[in-house]
Design goal:
- With 245 residues, the protein is mostly helical.
- The protein has 2 domains: 164 residues, no CATH class; 31 residues, no CATH class.
- Helix content is 42%, strand content 6%.
- It has 10 helices and 4 strands, in the order αβααβαβαβααααα.
- Strands 1-3 form a two-stranded antiparallel ribbon. Strands 2-4 form a two-stranded antiparallel sheet.
- Helix 2 packs across helix 4 and helix 4 packs across helix 5.
- It starts with 18 loop residues before the first helix and ends with a helix.
- 16% of the residues are buried.
């Protein structure tokens, strides 16, 4: 077979760029805030904060340096046992903290156009964490989901961090519904004694699989036959076990 020689035409990668464009800043991290895009942008800032080195380092410090390793409800659930521990922001969410910082920056700026710098927002929210002005609750994933589903209440004694200081310093930058949520939470938990839900008390359960004696090497061999493997379903298995093989 004859080789076909392919000649590629050389391209000159030279572009004419106007001098005035070269002098401009190539990247502008300003985000102009409007009523229409504010919520969406704050959620975007949240993702930047959660994925940042500063936030990751802070969470890691809580676990490794400050010895925050266990779920507040289920003490047997611990990082020391190789389990994943999650941190829930409470009584203010990460969105609440980020929104307050954004509102503060908008209030303090002198520009007629309302904008914030992405990294400035992330830096100030990180500093709130470093100053322990953020309320956090260590939870196992199931408890964390139950809290978000409003099936599990967080008592003030379970919260790490001086969230009251945050409220005092940033109150003017919080929307009314966020302030009402905070006041209601404090009111509902005033003089309420801390009680761990009964379903989080440790009660060992011995699991006894029914009909486990019916599962033998012979029945498994029949199920694993090559020509039936892709066709076996739960009904087949049930019939085979009940027939004794």
């Amino acid at each position: 077979m004859n080789e076909v020689e392919v000649k590629k035409e050389k391209k000159d990668l030279v572009y004419n760029i106007d001098d005035e464009l070269i002098d401009e800043e190539p990247y502008d991290d300003r985000y102009f805030i409007t009523d229409a895009n504010k919520v969406e942008l704050i959620k975007y800032f949240e993702t930047i904060i959660r994925s940042s080195f500063e936030y990751t380092w802070f969470i890691d410090m809580l676990k490794k340096t400050l010895d925050v390793k266990s779920c507040v409800f289920f003490k047997g659930y611990s990082v020391d046992n190789g389990m994943k521990l999650e941190f829930h922001h409470h009584p203010f969410t990460l969105f609440d903290y980020t929104e307050a910082v954004v509102n503060k920056m908008l209030d303090e700026q002198e520009s007629e156009e309302p904008f914030v710098f992405e990294m400035d927002v992330a830096k100030e929210v990180a500093m709130l964490h470093y100053k322990f002005m953020v309320g956090l609750v260590p939870l196992d994933p199931t408890s964390h989901q139950q809290v978000h589903d409003n099936k599990l209440d967080i008592h003030p004694d379970l919260v790490i961090g001086d969230y009251a200081r945050f409220y005092k310093e940033y109150e003017k930058y919080l929307p009314e519904h966020t302030k009402s949520k905070y006041i209601d939470w404090l009111t509902n938990n005033h003089d309420v004694e801390l009680e761990i839900p009964k379903n989080y008390n440790y009660r060992p359960t011995i699991i006894n699989a029914s009909n486990k004696n019916l599962v033998t090497i012979e029945t498994i061999d029949k199920l694993m036959l090559e020509d039936r493997l892709s066709k076996v379903n739960n009904i087949d298995i049930s019939k085979l076990l009940s027939s004794g093989g």
